[in-house]
Specification:
It contains eleven helices and eleven strands. The protein is an alpha/beta fold and 354 residues long. Helix 4 packs across helix 8.
Length: 354
């Protein structure tokens, strides 16, 4: 049986996540208090892998089972499962039904909670990476090598293969099958986001890369998209289709083990851009210093630009950024991180800070 402090911490997490995390998901907002009050379900979540954020993992696992055909009245509350134009039931009533589902499907749910990682590929976050590349281009002329840490399926590394619709302007590949739109909240015009460094090479690092040739792996990615986000799900499917045509290289392993050797393998003297989004937040606390040191090691043989989108309680140990919801960067010779832009977590809007 799990210790009481751990259960209490999980209960607090779900109560606070209703508004702090799931502000745009009425269903998940309604489910959080129900989970917080169910001791058996909280005890089940203590069996998750170290560092994994409990609410993302639980809701993704249940969504996975529903998308996979689990037969339960909970299906009626999920916009992603109910075929249009059939009505979806009021999420305010979903809590007790959700708890019943979790107990009825406890065995497959426990298997997913014990074995899976939170590996969301929010494709719109490529907008933030594109903006960071533009900022890097103001400091360095020439090609760069892109390294994504926590790459999952590597979809964000295709930042140079997408089309972007930002602030009434269009950038990227005009014929791209994946189009990413975002609101521009700046007072100045949108900068030329086509004026970015050429990406000379791409490589990802992940504990368990998503194999896009495996339908079960693709389903897990889909399950991590919130049920109301039909547009995001469609973008994900398009990005997956494109990535399967031209796969990127993703190294399997822990960042602390992979990055030092990877840094030596990259062309000496050539700049590298290391990027991660909602990755460090899932690194166990006792491993975070090693995570940071591993990223820093990529700068031993060439100029390092480090770009991230993480919550303020999971900063790089040398470059904290206090504000929530910012894309931050530090580059060669910087004494502090620069907050490049304020964003919402799924990059529906971007507000420049520099």
């Amino acid at each position: 049986m799990a210790a009481l402090p751990e259960i209490e911490a999980l209960a607090w997490h779900f109560r606070s996540a209703a508004t702090a995390v799931f502000g745009t998901s009425p269903l998940y907002q309604a489910l959080c208090p129900a989970v917080a009050d169910d001791r058996r379900l909280l005890e089940l979540l203590t069996r998750r892998r170290s560092g994994q954020q409990a609410s993302y993992l639980l809701f993704g696992a249940v969504h996975h089972l529903l998308l996979d055909g689990a037969d339960h009245r909970l299906r009626a509350y999920y916009p992603s499962v109910v075929p249009e134009p059939e009505p979806v039931r009021d999420p305010a009533d979903a809590g007790p039904v959700f708890i019943d589902f979790c107990h009825e499907y406890r065995a497959p749910l426990e298997d997913l909670i014990r074995t899976r990682l939170v590996q969301s590929n929010v494709v719109r976050r490529a907008i933030g990476l594109r903006y960071a590349l533009w900022a890097i281009g103001r400091r360095y002329e020439g090609p760069v090598h892109l390294v994504e840490v926590g790459a999952s399926a590597g979809l964000l590394m295709n930042v140079d293969r997408y089309r972007y619709l930002i602030g009434g302007r269009e950038f990227g590949r005009p014929d791209a099958s994946v189009a990413l739109d975002g609101r521009w909240r700046g007072t100045d015009p949108v900068p030329d986001l086509d004026d970015v460094p050429r990406i000379a090479g791409k490589i990802g690092v992940d504990l368990h890369p998503i194999d896009l040739a495996d339908s079960r792996e693709r389903l897990w990615l889909r399950a991590l998209v919130w049920p109301e986000q039909r547009t995001a799900a469609a973008i994900l499917e398009s990005a997956i289709d494109q990535a399967r045509e031209a796969p990127v290289t993703i190294i399997t392993g822990d960042v602390a083990d992979v990055c030092p050797a990877l840094g030596r393998d990259l062309p000496a003297g050539e700049p590298r851009v290391v990027f991660h989004a909602a990755t460090r937040m899932h690194v166990p606390a006792e491993r975070r210093e090693a995570f940071d040191d591993a990223i820093d090691s990529l700068g031993t043989s060439g100029p390092l630009f480090h770009v991230w989108l993480e919550p303020p309680d999971a900063p790089h140990h040398r470059f904290p950024v206090a504000a929530r919801g910012v894309i931050a960067m530090h580059g060669p010779g910087d004494d502090a991180a620069t907050a490049l832009a304020r964003v919402d977590g799924h990059l529906h809007w971007l507000e420049p800070l520099t």
